[in-house]
Automatic annotation (TrEMBL):
The keyword Oxidoreductase applies. It is an enzyme of class 1 (oxidoreductase). Its EC number is 1.8.4.12. This is peptide-methionine (R)-S-oxide reductase. Keywords: Oxidoreductase. The keyword Oxidoreductase applies. One of its GO terms (biological process) is response to oxidative stress. SUPFAM superfamilies: Mss4-like. GO terms for cellular component: cytoplasm. It catalyses: L-methionyl-[protein] + [thioredoxin]-disulfide + H2O = L-methionyl-(R)-S-oxide-[protein] + [thioredoxin]-dithiol. Signal peptide: none annotated. PROSITE patterns: MSRB (PS51790). PANTHER family: METHIONINE SULFOXIDE REDUCTASE, METHIONINE-R-SULFOXIDE REDUCTASE B1.
Length: 131
């Protein structure tokens, strides 16, 4: 799969912290309830930590209790879904449509009208407060 923003692992390693590289480029998962963006105050946007494409807004965020930032929808065209059969289960991985960075997974158990729960690693995104 190719993306508009393509870089070598060496280039990504030069730009990202070790933890952020592990999540965005190696599909690692941060431990639950540890992410800096689990609870956010104010209005703003969440962008990919690799390329800064805006993916979500605070109006799409909700507390799912799962331990990771959760959103009920994304900004259209910003997320690519891919089948993930790792860890002995089948899930739907979500990737940034611009750089292919691993963000987390999407599940069909969301409590809002969309029925979706985008479960995202805090290390994969940046928050910009509009206030």
């Amino acid at each position: 799969m190719s993306f508009p923003i393509e870089k070598t692992d060496a280039e990504w390693r030069n730009e990202l912290s070790n933890d952020r590289f592990a999540v965005l480029r190696e599909a690692a998962t941060e431990p639950p309830f540890t992410g800096a963006l689990l609870h956010v105050d104010g209005q703003g946007t969440f962008a990919c930590g690799g390329c800064q494409q805006v993916l979500f807004t605070t109006s799409q965020k909700f507390d799912s209790g799962c331990g990771w930032p959760s959103f009920d929808e994304c900004i259209p065209g910003t997320i690519i879904e891919r089948r993930d059969a790792s860890l002995g289960m089948v899930r739907t991985e979500i990737l940034c449509s611009q750089c292919g960075g691993h963000l987390g997974h999407v599940f069909n158990d969301g409590p809002t009208e969309s029925g979706l729960r985008y479960c995202v690693n805090s290390l994969a995104i940046d928050y910009e407060n509009e206030n």
